[in-house]
Amino acid sequence: MAGRVGPPASGSGRVEPRWGRYHADQTDRSGGKAENLVFHGRLEHMRIAVVSDGEGGGRLRELGSGSGPHGGLWQVSDLAGAISDYQGYAGGSIRWIWAATDDLYPALMEHSLRIPRCHDIALVESLLLAYHGRFGEARSLGAAWARLHGRDVPPDPVSRAGEGADPQPTLFEPDRSAIPAGVDRLDALIEVHADQQRRIAELPHPGRFALLASVESAGALAAVEMSHSGVPWRADIHDAVLTEHLGARPPSGMRPPVLAELAGRISEEFGRRVNPDSPTQLLKAFSAIGHPVPSTRSWVIKQVDHPVVPLLLRYKELSRLHSAHGWTWLENWVSRGRFRPDYVVGGVVSGRWATRGGGALQIPKAIRKAVVADPEWTLIAADAGQLEPRVLAAVSGDDALAAAAGGDDLYAPLARSFGGDRQRAKVAVLSALYGQTGGDAAPLLRTMRRDYPSALAYVDSAAQAGEEGGLVRSWLGRTCPQPSQMWRRLVLDGTGGGPSRDGGRSARERGRFTRNFVVQATAAEWALVFMAAVRRGLAELGSTYGTPQMVFFQHDELVLHVPRPVADSAVAVLYAAAEEARTLMFGDISVRFPLEVAVVDCYADA
DNA sequence: ATTCGCTGCCAC
DNA sequence: AAACGTGGCAGCGAAT
Known about the structure:
By secondary structure, this protein is α+β, with helices and mostly antiparallel strands. The protein has helices at 79-90, 101-110, 121-131, 141-148, 185-201, 206-229, 235-246, 257-270, 279-288, 298-301, 308-325, 327-333, 387-396, 399-404, 411-417, 422-434, 441-451, 453-467, 485-491, 501-541, 567-586; strands at 38-39, 42-43, 46-52, 58-62, 73-76, 94-98, 117-120, 231-232, 334-335, 338-339, 343-344, 354-355, 377-384, 549-553, 557-563, 595-600. It is globular and about 80 Å long.
């Protein structure tokens, strides 16, 4: 086994063990089992801590198991080469420990290097802080190290803005870990990692949280990979769609012909010059023609009976297309046939991803025509249908809802309680998830509460905790932000005979938030577990035709771009991954998470 | 000239 | 007017 430890320093010449190894007898340290530790029932992999020097090189060190000594320390001038060698040597069974995926992985991808697993210190620190009611505190490696040593905690470096379609050539990011001068970054990384492992082990459900840390980190890898691959995007089709709806492309800053004409006709109908983009002007204009409206929202305007209304609604629709996904967007975000959004993993409190620029999570249906697979390739869109109510069934243990979630249409059984009205059943379920009480929700909720009492009790309890200022958690342990000082003053410190009106409103708002959080956050982590499994499955699939890729991820939907000959295999990977996510998270339950899979040339057909 | 809150619409 | 959660983003227009 001695030969199984350490990178293959010979041959490539890329690895330069300048400092040699700290532990001459390290090969005896683990009985040869270092790479196959079983941790909380799951297979753990050899862990190697890595820091970059910002100039293409860096340092690495194998971590021992538990309290065992660490392995060799390496300083290399070609970090990507060293990591590649290590992975070739260890058969990919390595989990790389690093300060922040965003700082290291883009440069590795430039070297066509794919990392199977990592532990992202900043992301895990963020999860751990939130768990203990410290959401939002600095989470960089430097911040974590400073907290560990009682030093002043440096603020997180400001994240760079999205770079658009033509990002700068990628180098390893300069040191953004905020480690104080004089402190060895690799030592700090190893120390903070051990501390995080310890903090996770102390939690009530360490296995669940370890899974969360693992898939959050896997998500960070996938996000970088997806930005790198990009969504296949036909600019010519996009341009044709825009021209069809808006007319020929205008000089920049001008209204397209169709919008200009609509604006003119709207002004004529009002009998005055009105900029339809200005809510203020529209409100005045509606008053002037004897149809005062409280707002200019589409659904409000629709109630008004006047010939200007259809023109205005049409204008709003097309204006949205032009401003949000028009020619300017196309130039800024699409290049060389790919749309490259910049994902922010964990950017949403519930654990969903956000994006920075490009609006990737709001690609309107009209524009999806432009998403077309390359020749000889195909798109595979997989959507987890009714994910949130199914998650509620799983976490609440409501037998009736779980039975409903054992079928393809979760709403069908409840619909029978509404005389077969499926739409009302759907509104009832979503009202329970969102805390809706107004409109027609109240009577629907009564039926929901009667049929699924445990499910309602679960979200009601989360709402109550939120209203009282408490924390709620997802199934794996992602924790909602603590209430702000302002909120506490308003709600909890109310003087006299009870909370003020503002306090009551704030309390109910937070209640709706925490009610939804326990479900949305768990749905998000189901999606992360699913994605991590898909990612691994695709890597194992391989292909002589080209590498199957994940290219788009949006809350409960994943889009793959794969060579046609491997499409069937990729679909099988998707189904297996959904099943794996279900059992990894919830074990043996009757709730199913059916996947709607569409193999299509064009995303609009999914 | 720049910043920032608001409005309104898009996605899930 | 309605009383539903998480977000991004463009345009407006007042504040700076």
